[in-house]
Amino acid sequence: MNSASEGRKGLLLISPTFAYAILLLAAPLILVIMFSFWTQDYLDLDTTPTLANYKEAWTDPLYRELMFRSLRISIMVTLVTVITAFPVAYYVSFRVTERKALWLFLITAPFWTSYLLRVFLWKVILGYNGVFNSALLWAGIIDEPLQFILYNINAVVITLAHAWAPFAILPIFVALEKIDRSLLEAAEDLGDGPVRRFFRVTLPLAIPGVMAATLIVLIPTVGDFITPKLVGGTEGLMISNMIQVQFGKANNAPLGAALAVSSMFIVGGLSLLIFLGSRRVGRVAGE
Amino acid sequence: MTAAKAEKSIITLDNVTRSFGSVQALRGVSAEIREGEFFSLLGPSGCGKTTLLRMIAGFDEPTTGRITLDGKPMAGIAANHRPTNMVFQSYAIFPHLSVADNVGYGLKKKRLPKADYDREVEEALKMVSLGGYGPRAAHTLSGGQRQRVALARALIMRPKVILLDEPLSALDKKLREQMQVELRRLQRSVGITFILVTHDQEEALIMSDRIAVMFDGQIAQLDSPEALYRKPHTQRVASFIGVMNFLEAKSLGEKGDKISLDIQALGKLDIPASALPAGMTASEITRVGVRPEMMSIALEGAKGTGHEIDAEIAESEYYGDMTYYQVKLPGKDEPVTISMRNTAGRAVLEPGSKTRVSFSPESIVVFR
Amino acid sequence: MAKGSKKLDWLRGYASIYMVFLYAPVILLPIFAFNDSTVIAFPLVGFTTEWFASLKSNSALHDALGNSMIVAVSTAIISTVLGAFAARAGVRYRFPAKRGIMGLILLPLVLPEIIIAVSLLVLLMRLGMSLSLWTVIVGHVLVCVPFSIAVLNSAFAGLDQSLEEASFDLGETSWGTFKRVTFPLILPGVISSLLITFTISLDEFIIAFFLTGTDVTLPVYIWSQLRFPAKLPGVMALGTLLLLLSITLLILAEFFRRRSAQRRGLDASTTEGLI
Q1: Which of A172, A181, B137, C172 has the fewest CB atoms within 10 Å of its CB?
Q2: C158 vs C139: CA distance, rounded Å
Q3: Architecture of domain B244-367
Q4: Coil, helix or strand for A244?
Q5: B146 pLDDT above the threshold of 90
């Protein structure tokens, strides 16, 4: 089959799926971007292009605060999740010899439940009268319920670190599995102790997996509004809550669109930085 | 050899070329393949032999040129409508079907009554020595068994031509040798034209009626195994088939039915003029070749042929039934290879020993 | 090797604590689903099955469940079909702009669901279309197709190309080859894709929240119940059942995947097909 007919056949085959994506993903996204340049007046949509929404999104102190808080929280969540996930991935890859599949299954099993329910359960666990406090009181470890664990940023971080755990563990695990074990043996043979070996061989080679984990956690976190709403209190509200409000009660879709585009822009920029940075770190650490 | 068959062409290749962008896989291949023969396409990897086979099968079309099968041009005819069947290099046995369903796969469309269908399948299996294997799951078979199933699957269709794409390359040596003999026997008994693609020159020599040696997308020589071995047209063909010793040479003139040559290390001697291939003049000769078994080391009791020179043994390699010697001849830096059969009582000579080497001028091949 | 084994223990201990952390919320589901109290807190009061019983009489719940089933089954079928086209095109063919096309199709993997939901909402608003279960299905298919492609990629990649050629060579048509050779061999991948996309759609909340009309899906129904403390134990019971269902589906998917690999005589390695 020559290359022209192969190309035609391939395009034909992928056209249904591609058409679906163009019509229902690309077109709507472009529409959202266009919306962000329009204004909404109750039920009327004014389509004269304007930067007013972006001005509001970037200068109004409320939105700025939300945007940067979201960024801070997301970065914090990402750091905590990835750092706590790494040792587990390392354990399963390097220390478990039989039944690795079973470990992976056990790690992912809790997450085949409704995300909504899991967030709600954390609310139940961390609450003033919740499971954690009542258990500690009942066991006599504390006299009064802990207050700092719910309706604030801590709760959001804990809940999301839990929710994204397997999404962070799996890419790191895959990257670690790919490492040729004979490289580590060679390093040992050349005199490196276990700690040096880890930092000189294992970690640099695991960087692609760590980076994937970082992006897999960071990007959706920025868009999450359930967790902040249920466990974040007023301190923990994030930008997506505001986006949801603008598209809902506030009926200001253009502003919501501007906020959405802005947050995507920020996250996209951050992801790019992380991507490029990890490449450099991988190269430097490997020397 | 077999009795003379009617030499009818079953496949005609007319200046077939195939380019992939700027890469030319086939550069003008022309040949006639005869009905009922065992024909091989032999060459190193990348020479275009598999490309050519796939075009005969219908999985690819020539960029220019024509392929004619049984008198009908095959241009535009898809693989599923051609009177050919292929045995793939990976065997391509359907893993989810039984052996019987594999073998009978192509028959299903003919909607035969069940009894006839079952009989055909069992007969095809018997032909490849797998009688009774029908109900087995195909993916449980060994490599050699799968290969036979692939063969039975093709044979049952009674095609005009069976195409085999390096069918024995995945088998171990003993099994391969066994299958080579079996394939040959099978082809003779069913009388279908077989076209085999291989890079193993021994395999081609053993099984084929005729071989097309291919290099770089072209046929270098198309001949019977014996003709290829005894009279290779070029040095490349000569060294691809078996081992060939090359010596520098030039012509000193022709005398009647003999040509005078001055050959490195062997000196001046006359060879028959019939050794000169058609289309070549004596003045074009730059080298000659001698096969290892066409030279002899003067061991005790061996008779000389009249042409003898002094020599020294450099290395010996013992293979059980034969010994291959690397022999240094005066006037030549590189040693030549000489093979001697280890008949009873014959000693194996040690490196360093001086001896005499004899040869026969009739066995010399000339090259440009 | 005392130093080595000490490190082993520390890492193993950490991994064990981490697993407790992972399972903590989930374990609570069955515990409080059977707890005889409307308050979700320790100490436990007593054993009861009344919360499960209450689910049976809850008609709003049944409606939501039915809606979720419709959405999940439709999503599974549509995503698997679209995913199959894309996976086969990607594995077998080279064509212009392949990277860009595949990139767009796989984009939902890196977009927050709220963005996808909001953009579809905007499109529907502009077109003047009303929200319904179909709009939810449209959104779900967008996010499920990449997963379907991931599963079917390895199904097609593991399919020896010469098998289809052999079928042609023996006289079969394109459709016949698909029916007799291709489909049976990718069937395990198809089933896996159906199960995975079904499960994803069943649990998906954000897109459903934005794009649902008067008929709600199960997660949206659950969300509406969360503000009523009295309903919480019922939610626990429901969650327990959903957990069991999801795990069963997961195990089924894995079972089929391994069985198919065995049938083909392949090595059923841990990550084949899922990562």
Answers
A1: A181
A2: 30
A3: Beta Barrel (2.40)
A4: helix
A5: yes
